[in-house]
Each structure stands twice: as structure tokens, then as C-alpha cells.
Design goal:
Layout: H1 13-19, H2 24-30, E1 32-36, H3 38-46, E2 51-56, H4 58-63, H5 65-73, E3 77-80, H6 83-89, E4 98-103, H7 109-114, E5 119-123, H8 129-142, E6 146-150, H9 159-165, E7 174-178, H10 180-189, E8 193-197, E9 203-204, H11 205-211, E10 218-222, H12 231-234, E11 239-242, H13 254-270
Parallel strand pairs: 2-3, 5-6, 5-10, 6-7, 8-10, 8-11, 9-11
Antiparallel strand pairs: 1-4, 2-4
Helix pairs in contact: 3-5, 8-9, 8-13
């Protein structure tokens, strides 16, 4: 017989503490955030020292017994909970029965620079959490070594951003709150070429690839969803690059453009003469 849930009241102090993490000010004060669903919880459990607590329904504990086991092995406190408790903590319309409480895991910008990154995504004034999380996922998939969120960008630990990253938040270093001028100056001093992605850019991405100029360490700067990059930010870049539109679409959204740019760099860097070996996994 399955054990009865131990946290039967949404008014439990632990439940109230977890629920407050849906608000940015409490996340910042406690340096904790929520990770919901089996994928995010599994990734959090696999990231040493990150998962603190796991709230899980009896049904989810049976369905995802391996994940619950990984959470316990990682040292997290596991709390069987009633469905209404999970629903009270969760920020999704249809909770999946697992909600983890995780420690902040952002990386100091100086550490990112010291690692001599070869591919970086810089989010400048990106305000939509879903877009931020999706760009983080794209950067992870393209093999980027780091993501930088400027001081004017959305909170990385917003529940929507965490969900949109689909676990990639736990895979690569992310620096937050870095002024865009500081981000560009630091990366350039580390030998990284700065490319600003902008639909009105003077350079075409296809031309950059044809010229063979994208094989070295590169940082892509992506701007706000609605108005792109301001002139003062574009002026900081070594080149302002547009993704060519070959069809009749007016433009690409932020996440799609980021995926195209990051994968273009990843391919160029893996080609002969690039800064990555063609045999690198």
C-alpha cells in the first residue's frame, strides 16, 4: 500500500516557503527557485548540490521512482504531498506531480571569462522569460560554453524561464546581471569576437559564413523581443549581422534567430581551421 501524503495542508510552513518562491523578491532573498516536472527535477538532481527539497504526489512517486531515488541520493529532502499541495506550489496549469526547490546556480562572469569560452550567447534587455529560457536551451544544444544575461534582462529563475530551458539551465554556466558594456569588454579582452544579431544588420549571416570569419571564438548579442538592439549596443559589436530572409516572412522571432546564429557559429567552429576540432563530440 502506498503511504499517505505527509504534507496534507497547503498551510504547512514548508509549503508556504516553497510557494513564495514564485515571487522574484523571495527567490532573491532565499537564493532558491522552483523546478517543476520530471525533466527539470531529474536535471536538478544530477547537478551536485542544487536540489534541496522535492515535493511529490504518491502517484508521481510511483511513476517516477527513479527520479525520486536520484533526488534522495543527491541529498534532497523528499516530501510526499497531496495533489492540492502540489497544485498550490506549482505555477503550471496542469502540474506533473513533482516540484523541486533548488539553489541558485548562476556563475560569476569572471569565472566564465577565465574558462576562455568559444561560443557565448549574451541576452541584452530580453524581457520575456519564455524567450530567455528558450535561447538558453538553444545555446546548450548548439554547444555554447556560457550564457550571459545583462542587468536589464528578465530573472533567469522565473518559473516560465526555468520551464522553457527544459533542463538546459543545469547544463552550462550562466552569468546574470552583467551590464552589456562590461559583458562586451570582458569577452573581447578574452579574445572573443562580438557579433550583434539584428534584422537591420549591415552584414549578412550567409556572407559571414562564406568569408570564413566565424571560425573563431564568438559571442552573439541578442536584443529585446520588440525593439531589438539599441544603437549604442550595436556600436559595441565587431559586426552587426542579420539572418537573411529568403522567403516572404517579415522577420524571425528572437529564439528562432538565436538558434540560427548559434548553430551557424557552431558549424563554422567545427569546420577545418575553426577553433573546434571536427572530431570533437
Amino acid at each position: 500500500m502506498s503511504p499517505a501524503p505527509e504534507l496534507i495542508s497547503p498551510r504547512s510552513p514548508r509549503v508556504l516557503a516553497a510557494r513564495r518562491l514564485a515571487r522574484r523578491n523571495f527567490r532573491g532573498k532565499e537564493r532558491l527557485f522552483l523546478a517543476e516536472g520530471p525533466q527539470a527535477v531529474r536535471e536538478a538532481a544530477g547537478h551536485k548540490g542544487t536540489l534541496v527539497e522535492l515535493f511529490v504526489t504518491v502517484e508521481a512517486a510511483e511513476r517516477y521512482a527513479d527520479i525520486v531515488g536520484e533526488a534522495r541520493d543527491a541529498g534532497a529532502r523528499v516530501h510526499p504531498a497531496a495533489e492540492d499541495v502540489i497544485a498550490d506550489i506549482s505555477t503550471t496549469v496542469t502540474p506533473q506531480g513533482l516540484v523541486g526547490v533548488c539553489r541558485f546556480l548562476d556563475t560569476p562572469f569572471a569565472e566564465i571569462l577565465a574558462a576562455r569560452p568559444r561560443l557565448v550567447a549574451v541576452l541584452a534587455n530580453v524581457r520575456d522569460p519564455g524567450n530567455a529560457g528558450t535561447v538558453l536551451r538553444c545555446a546548450d544544444a548548439a554547444g555554447a560554453e556560457a550564457v550571459v544575461l545583462t542587468d536589464a534582462s528578465v530573472d533567469l529563475y522565473n518559473p516560465k524561464a526555468v520551464r522553457a530551458s527544459v533542463g538546459s539551465l543545469f547544463h552550462l554556466p550562466v552569468a546574470i546581471g552583467v551590464p552589456v558594456e562590461e559583458a562586451v569588454a570582458g569577452l573581447r579582452a578574452a579574445g572573443v569576437r562580438i557579433l550583434a544579431a539584428d534584422g537591420a544588420g549591415t552584414d549578412d549571416l550567409d556572407d559571414e559564413l562564406d568569408r570564413g570569419t566565424m571560425g573563431g571564438p564568438t559571442a552573439w548579442v541578442f536584443g529585446n523581443e520588440a525593439w531589438g538592439l539599441p544603437e549604442e549596443t550595436r556600436a559595441l559589436a565587431d559586426a552587426v549581422v542579420r539572418v537573411p530572409i529568403h522567403g516572404k516572412a517579415e522577420s524571425l522571432n528572437l529564439a528562432t534567430a538565436a538558434a540560427v546564429c548559434l548553430y551557424a557559429s557552431a558549424r563554422a567552429q567545427r569546420a577545418s581551421g575553426g577553433c573546434r576540432s571536427v572530431t570533437e563530440s
